């Protein structure tokens, strides 16, 4: 059976993290802030486990937003962080070069704020010929309505909406892939809420 060209694989995508900074998280009202951090960390762990290239960019670190959140810095300690002035990463030469250097045409986007830095980047990426996947539950908006409107606008231009759990399961896909099985399962157990609790339960009840 031929492999689907629509599905994400560890070899065809890159992760772009935009403005995952506490100063911006303070203003997020589209979802619980701790859930947003949990989901973003799970996505970063997923990228690390599957060897997906990661491009990290921040803005206004000295003025308001602060540095990359420590939990994400811990997961991606070996990755450079590119600070910029423009709200749109596609208007920053260093970030553009880093994205191009990954050699990937499918881009996963996570960060803040959905109404601005995420949507501007995704709309620009679509126009530049990339296929954009917005990890919607790892993006934060100022309001639930603003977040939803931004998602709709991006989707209208061809961007694909997804979730962090779908990403990790899509990359793993076959639980007989032993190289990433334990780590992928560990992400779900640690960050997957009720699903993770169920996997822990199954591990205890069915030790074989």
TrEMBL record:
<dbReference type="Pfam" id="PF00857">
    <property type="entry name" value="Isochorismatase"/>
</dbReference>
<dbReference type="InterPro" id="IPR036380">
    <property type="entry name" value="Isochorismatase-like_sf"/>
</dbReference>
<feature type="domain" description="Isochorismatase-like">
    <location>
        <begin position="13"/>
        <end position="164"/>
    </location>
</feature>
<protein>
    <submittedName>
        <fullName>Isochorismatase family protein</fullName>
    </submittedName>
</protein>
<dbReference type="InterPro" id="IPR053152">
    <property type="entry name" value="Hydrolase_YcaC-like"/>
</dbReference>
<dbReference type="InterPro" id="IPR000868">
    <property type="entry name" value="Isochorismatase-like_dom"/>
</dbReference>
């Amino acid at each position: 059976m031929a492999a689907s060209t629509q599905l994400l694989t560890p070899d065809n995508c890159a992760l772009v993290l935009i403005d995952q900074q506490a100063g911006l998280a303070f203003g997020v009202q589209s979802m619980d802030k701790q859930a947003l951090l949990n989901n973003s960390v799970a996505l970063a762990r997923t990228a690390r486990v599957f060897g997906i290239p990661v491009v990290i960019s921040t803005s206004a670190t000295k003025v308001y937003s602060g540095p990359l959140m420590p939990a994400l810095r811990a997961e991606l300690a070996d990755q450079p962080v590119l600070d910029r002035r423009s709200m749109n990463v596609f208007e920053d030469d260093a970030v553009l070069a880093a994205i191009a250097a990954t050699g990937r045409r499918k881009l996963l986007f996570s960060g803040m704020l959905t109404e601005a830095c995420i949507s501007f980047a995704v709309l620009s990426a679509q126009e530049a010929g990339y296929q954009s996947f917005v990890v919607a539950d790892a993006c934060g908006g100022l309001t639930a309505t603003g977040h939803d409107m931004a998602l709709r606008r991006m989707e209208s231009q061809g961007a694909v909406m997804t979730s962090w759990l779908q990403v990790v399961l899509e990359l793993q896909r076959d639980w007989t892939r032993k190289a990433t099985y334990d780590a992928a399962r560990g992400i779900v157990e640690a960050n997957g809420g009720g699903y993770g609790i169920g996997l822990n339960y199954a591990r205890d009840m069915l030790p074989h």
